[in-house]
Amino acid sequence: MRKSINFNSGWLYSPIHLGLAEPDDTFESVTLPHSNKLFPHSNNDNLDYQFISHYRKHFFYQKEIQDEQVFLDFDGVMVACKVFLNRELLYENLGGYRPFSVNLTPGLQNSDNVLDLIVDSNERKDIPPFGHLVDYLTYGGIYRDVHLRIVNLVHINNVFILTFDVLNNPQLKCVVGLSKASSDLSLEAVLLDQEKCPIAKSKSLVDEDSCSLHFDSLPHISLWDLDNPNLYSMSISLFAENKLIDTVVERFGFRTAEFRTDGGFYLNGERIQLFGLNRHQTYPYLGAAAPKRLQEQDAEILKQELACNIVRTSHYPQSPHFLNRCDEIGLLVFEEITGWQHIGDEQWQKISLNELKAFILRDRNHPSIILWGTRINESMDDNDFYTQTNALAHRLDPTRQTGGVRNFLGSNLLEDVYTYNDFSGSIKKPPQKPHLVTEFAGHMYPTKVWDHEKRLIDHALLHARIHDEQLGHQDITGAIGWCAFDYATHIEFGSGDRVCYHGTMDIFRLPKWAAYFYQSQQPPQKEIVLHAATHWTMGDRNGGGSSPLTIFSNCEEIEVIFGEINLGRYAPDHKTYPHLLHPPFIISGLDKYNAWGQREFYDLHFKGYIENKVVAQQTIPSNRLPKALDLQLYSATLIANGADMTRLAFRIIDDFGNLLPYVSKIVNFKIEGPADIIGENPYPLFGGQAAIFIKARMETGTVTIHGFADGLPPSDVKLDIIREN
Predict the structure, then answer these.
(1) In a domain, 266, yes or no
(2) What is the pLDDT of residue 500?
(3) Exposure winner among 426, 478, 511, 528, fewest CB in 10 A?
(4) 219: cis peptide before it, omega within 30°?
(5) Which DSSP category does 622 fall into?
(6) In whole angstroms, how far apart are CA 193 and each of 197, 369, 436?
(7) Beta bridge mates, 85
């Protein structure tokens, strides 16, 4: 029977390329995912991770059956690696985003074994995305999970679940690929509902290395959609002479997803305007080595905090944990091939095609994925190469369409959807339909949390304006803004600290005002949003004052109170933003109440109304003085596995909980219990907000984190480290 063993713990690491005979005491102990180096939150130099490192792991193996096969499954190693077992080279992988497997069986000893990985994290021009400039960093190491897989010589290699006619008479086909064909084999597929109860079954004899099992009659099926992401499972069992030898369980959903030539995208037959953001997978301190919880939290932030219905995995395939969470919460995904503007030689293209094959085979059962990106982001036309990528995608997955992201109109369309990065400041009329805007804003308007008020507002309103335009454009399927989170980059692209400040949130996943625009577009039944885009200071804008006042909210009306003066209720600006579900509130005429040089300066108070009832309030004090160090944990528990971690955000706030981005303080942390701080400690806080990570050790217990900043009361938060169920 199949076994899958998490292989993340018990590794040894050296940042120096050591010989295979080097003793273990020259290594340090690490747990995967692992970055070959930890970094500050800014001023990252790509040269710092470009070196060859050495990973080692000892493990005991005892063969249980004669035909047992053992594989090592890697989710990702950056950028290339050689895998040695008991000092013999077994495999070399090229490409940091490609999942790959290594057959350990020929070299395994029936006793103690040693694995050595020599990891080359240099930006090699022969491997995508390199060969020219790249606008993101590719931090090194074994940065994703590793599993040991033990199977029979004859086993299930892959499973592809296809659904048909789900809106009328749902049908199902399960295509199973085997490692080897044999005349005595049979397959059984069992459909499991959301509670893992069997509801349908199909059986078939097997005489080839690929077999299809059909379900022509199914009970009532619940569709997967944005609000009800119903997930089913398929349990596939392989028998030899009626003896069970392998079982695989794949999760999937019943849904239709189609980009049509009328200009629309349809999910389950209903037109949905796509509204989303791009995501880079990198983090402060960790590089790309984020564990399961942080990957899942990014998906949650995009769907639940930023109210997106789609994310583009720019510009490479991303973590299975991230994609799994998108399935679970109903977040659509445009998954993309690795690259940035550059196409390499024939060998480079071969690596790219191998990666495309690997991630489609891995990910094609995810109901959240609606489009395969088969063109190197913003590259020039290359009909020969892109004919191959599109043909491969359609052969491996005939159920999904393809898109190819370009940054110039008029390029050759070999894909099914014209995907286009539009930085015109508007929505250009599409030359082809269906047409999806895959980037806008971004480098046209980099914005920092501590920028002056007008820039923060203009940044948010740029996103509001483009989305308003695309929502009213019947020839556009939607728009995906650049981007969700700030990210570290090469010196050729970033700000003075090598950070691209293109995000609606900062690099810590904490909001700028543009994030409040996105958040305000969700129905108030999910969350009521009211956030005034002002620091309520006299001298932060050219000419002084705070007029006009911008408020992002999904309330029906906003009441504004200046000191003791009630200015009345205001409606959203439907005239300027006629297509947004919840337009911003734009309120003019405040200058006469807080004119330049005026002696009295009063608190500002807002009330949000729905159906004439107060449902939200915000107060911004006139003094704007720091009163507290606010600590917020994203998770209250961690798993005691040496890898699990969560974000600890910290902010300097006023009496009413508003961020104070112009306050600079040194923040110190002290931790008690079985966990460690990942990040800068002490932290020289500038911009009013930042975050560190709390990483679990192998022991259980309660962890307390204390925070200190001069002139403010100390703060603390607690979390529990528990065993996994």
Answers:
(1) no
(2) 96
(3) 426
(4) no
(5) S
(6) 5, 21, 34
(7) 88, 115
Please tell me whether residue 687 adopts helix, strand or coil conformation: coil
Answer yes or no: are the C-beta atoms of 535 and 661 closer than 8 Å.
yes
What does the alpha-carbon distance between residue 37 and residue 49 come to, in Å, rounded to a whole number?
A: 7
Q: Which domain holds residue 88?
A: 3-151
Domain boundary among 470, 489, 520: 520
Q: What is the DSSP string of 492-520?
A: TTS-TTSEE---SB-TTS-B-HHHHHHHH
Residue 425 and residue 492 in one domain? yes
Do both 636 and 602 map to the same domain? Answer: no
Cβ-proximal residues to 332 (8 Å cutoff; 6+ apart), any chain: 226, 257, 267, 274, 276, 309, 310, 311, 326, 368, 369, 370
Same domain, 451 and 513: yes
Place of tokens 């792991």: 57
| Pair 611, 535: CB distance under 8 Å | no
Write the single-letter amino acid at 358.
A
CB atoms within 10 A of CB 384: 8
pTM of structure: 0.95
Asked if residue 565 is part of any domain, the answer here is yes
Distance CA 190, CA 232 (A): 11
- pLDDT value at residue 597: 62
Catalytic residue among 123, 250, 305, 378: 378
Mean pLDDT, 10 residues at a time, the chain of 725 residues: 94 94 95 96 94 97 89 97 97 97 94 97 97 94 98 95 94 94 90 95 91 92 97 96 94 98 96 98 96 98 98 96 98 97 96 97 98 96 96 97 92 94 89 93 93 95 97 95 96 92 97 98 96 90 86 97 91 97 92 66 92 96 92 97 97 95 95 97 95 97 97 97 91
Burial class, 636, CB count within 10 angstroms (exposed 0-12 / middle 13-18 / buried 19+): exposed
The Cα 411–Cα 403 span in angstroms is: 13
pLDDT number for residue 594: 64
CA dist 676 and 670 (Å) reads 10
3-class DSSP assignment, residue 350: helix
Q: Which amino acid is at 610?
A: I
Give 303's DSSP letter.
I
> Do 433 and 286 fall into the same domain?
yes
Residue 106, exposed/middle/buried by CB under 10 A (0-12, 13-18, 19+)? exposed
Given a contact cutoff of 8 angstroms between Cβ atoms, the answer to whether 532 and 457 are in contact is no
CATH code for the domain in which residue 225 is found: 2.60.40.10
Identify whether 556 is a catalytic site residue.
Answer: no
Residue 699 is a catalytic residue? no
Residues 436 and 452 in one domain: yes
Query: What CATH code is carried by the domain that includes residue 387?
Result: 3.20.20.80
Which among 633, 616, 627, 606 is positioned nearest to 688, based on CA atoms?
627
Query: 160 and 139 in one domain?
Result: no
**Rounded-to-integer distance, Cα 694 and Cα 678, Å:** 6
Angle at 298 between CA 293 and CA 302, to 5 degrees: 145
Task: Note the pLDDT of residue 157.
Answer: 95
Q: Where are the alpha helices (DSSP H) in 415-512?
A: 453-471
Q: Where are the beta strands (DSSP E) in 305-417?
A: 310-313, 332-336, 369-373, 401-403
State how many domains the chain has.
5
Instruction: Provide the sign of the torsion angle of the four alpha carbons 560, 562, 567, 568, taken in this order.
Output: positive
Cα 164 to Cα 167, 355, 652, distances in angstroms: 9, 28, 54
Peptide bond into 483 cis (omega under 30): yes
Phi, psi of 131 (to 5 degrees): 125, -25
Catalytic-labelled residue, pool 415, 439, 453, 469: 439
Torsion angle, alpha carbons of 168, 173, 174, 179, to 10: -160
pLDDT in the model for residue 373:
97
List of residues 6+ apart from 518 with CB closer than 8 A: 277, 305, 306, 307, 308, 463, 504
CB 126 within 8 A of CB 349: no
Same domain, 326 and 421: yes
Residue where one domain finishes, among candidates 573, 597, 620: 620
